[in-house]
Amino acid sequence: MAKNLFRIFRSFQSFVSLPFTKNQVAHPCASVAFRTTFDRTMVQALASFFSPKSRDFSLPNSSWGEEMIRLYEFYNNQCEGENHGGEWRRLPSYNRSLKYASGGVYLSKIIQSKARLFTRNIREPGAAFEYVVFVSKDEQRCVCVFQSGHLLEGPPGHVHGGAIATMIDTVTGSHASILSAPVMTANLNINYRSPIPLGNTVLVESCLDKREGRKLFISCKVTSTDGSKLHTEATALFLSINVSHLLRG
Ligand SMILES: CCCCC/C=C\C/C=C\C/C=C\C/C=C\CCCC(=O)SCCNC(=O)CCNC(=O)[C@H](O)C(C)(C)COP(=O)(O)OP(=O)(O)OC[C@H]1O[C@@H](n2cnc3c(N)ncnc32)[C@H](O)[C@@H]1OP(=O)(O)O
Q: Is 56 a catalytic residue?
């Protein structure tokens, strides 16, 4: 079991480090355009770890507003292409995490068949978390374009603080996973500076501050898309873990 998990996590690391090219944006469910047949085969094989029918949720859908699309295209146009090395790489995003759950064989099977990644578990497009994450070429920064949906209401007309924390954990966690999968959040420290109007598109940006052995210190800011308004700031500590840590429960 531990060996299998280790192989899966190694595959995940190769997966996130694959040299994705610009994706085909025209269709909501468009798949990534791949540089080589080898890349395509690798990604298809790895995608089967997530779901038999993997849909990449970080591609545009009909619920995305103008600002979301504009920023998606802005960063996507700076992604690695056939003829030039772009500054950014888009991270694909599925509705299942790795097929693993503790709790005994019976419970594991139930959980594994029903488990859904928290941020991708609502079917109605635009109802909750719509987001796409891009990572910089040197992997020191991530930027996420996030559009909040009506199910995320906290204070009237504004985004719930827990939903904001979820997005911060997701962006910093994805960032840490790219640098050193598998990881777990050890500490998340959040300062809410100004409320986010429900339905708005905002930027969630993370930055690697330092690495110390197994520890990754990452800071994060949530701002309006023009950068003029600071909504939230956070610092996070991730620890890279051995897969046996997950088996201990
Ligand atoms: C679930 C698996 C995830 C795997 C991810 C892989 C692929 C993911 C795929 C896609 C990624 C996409 C999206 C990612 C989205 C979201 C990410 C969500 C992540 C989470 O949502 S995850 C759930 C919440 N998370 C927990 O449920 C953690 C519970 N917890 C523990 O599991 C342990 O607590 C652990 C592992 C954290 C540490 O345990 P440990 O035994 O490995 O390490 P130990 O305690 O020995 O500490 C070693 C050194 O870290 C220092 N240290 C430890 N904790 C500290 C703290 N809080 N503050 C300051 N320093 C701390 C010590 O002081 C020592 O420092 P020093 O060495 O200097 O003395």
A: no
| ipTM attached to this prediction | 0.92
Specify the pTM. Answer: 0.83
Per-residue pLDDT of 20-74, as tens digits, reads 434 433 333 333 333 333 333 334 444 444 445 678 999 999 999 999 999 999 9
| Number of structural domains in the chain | 1
Q: Name the catalytic one among 39, 56, 138, 169.
A: 169
Which CATH number fits the domain that encloses residue 156? 3.10.129.10
114 CA → ligand 1 middle, Å:
24
Give 193-207 pLDDT, tens digit per residue.
999 999 999 999 999
| Structural domain span for residue 221 | 2-248
Q: What does the DSSP 8-state code read for residue 151?
A: G
Q: Which two tokens stand for residue 247?
A: 């088996």
